[in-house]
């Protein structure tokens, strides 16, 4: 016989998936669910914890369990796609606000990340990405000026990739990515809609031209409820 918390989980999950509990609404409280299902509070908590683990709800202190949007944006881990292209594929309303745009000498961290000398001019751009009105991504871009001449704030508000490939005629070929989950920084909370969220997904991108020249380093900070990071992996034949 199935554990009661799994039965409750299945029913709540079905109601979320069928829209009975729409995205961004609050589930009934633990006390209400305890009465509805005639069970203990511990059983309800187990069901809610499983819903959270499966990405169906976000438990927010002082507010309850908010239903997440199941139509998450899919970021391909192995692919290389711009924010503009991604939003277009998903049919979402996307906006970009350029908060900072400068050309100057790099600090020690950027010298290390881009493998340049400290006298090499670098474009530094901070952009806030909005999907359907919510500020959910903070992009911190650093580009080697000699490889991306003529960059403007207006270009950054649209698509840097489009500018590089369309205007400069360079081929963007591949990227190395590093993923971590961290506590939100003060900067995250300043620029993004982070109320109730206690983690942020950080993706460090090292982006290369087709001649293997590293020209861009981007630290992209994502609010976790809106994204699903996906990949395709094939098991290699074993050598015997």
UniProtKB/TrEMBL annotation:
GO BP field: negative regulation of DNA-templated transcription
Coiled coil: none
Gene Ontology MF, one: DNA-binding transcription factor activity
Annotated keywords: DNA-binding, Repressor, Transcription, Transcription regulation
Gene3D superfamilies (UniProt xref): Chorismate lyase-like, Winged helix-like DNA-binding domain superfamily/Winged helix DNA-binding domain
Annotated PROSITE patterns: HTH_GNTR
Keyword DNA-binding: yes
Start and end residues of each HTH gntR-type domain: 2-70
SUPFAM superfamilies hit by this protein: Chorismate lyase-like, Winged helix' DNA-binding domain
Keyword RNA-binding: no
InterPro entries, sorted: Bact_HTH_transcr_reg, Chorismate_lyase_/UTRA_dom_sf, TreR, Tscrpt_reg_HTH_GntR, UTRA, WH-like_DNA-bd_sf, WH_DNA-bd_sf
PANTHER family given in the database record: HTH-TYPE TRANSCRIPTIONAL REGULATOR TRER, MANNOSYL-D-GLYCERATE TRANSPORT/METABOLISM SYSTEM REPRESSOR MNGR-RELATED
Stated name of the protein: Trehalose operon repressor
Record organism: Mesobacillus campisalis
